[in-house]
Request: fold
Amino acid sequence: MTKDQKILILGMEKEGAQALIQLLQSWGYSGIWIQDPQKLFQAISSYQPCLGLIDLDSENNGAMETLRHLRKDSPHFPVIAATSQDSLEMERTIRALGIFYLCLKPYDPEELQLAIERATNYIEVEQALYAS
Reply:
């Protein structure tokens, strides 16, 4: 893993985002909290993050609609989603949107760390394949 990779955080309340940023920093990543879903594409362009973490449960965060737009405009940008809705319908919806990994909340930090490591490894392999 390349140290100090950036991870966008979307759809979380400020306190949750700050706690997640501290956790990401302890793993060697930089967390960037985006409060407004409308600024997601600008943030991707500006910060060039390796992946996004999106909370699907926060009220009125527009996460599902944002994911739909993201898949349309940036289909290869990896996203890890978190939700407390443990249903087959939710999982089907998430998978149809091309989510890299779905974490059930409250998430286990070890599970989240492993999902992030797998996503970043996948990205590195994909970049190496396209570079050659």
Observations:
- The radius of gyration is 14 Å.
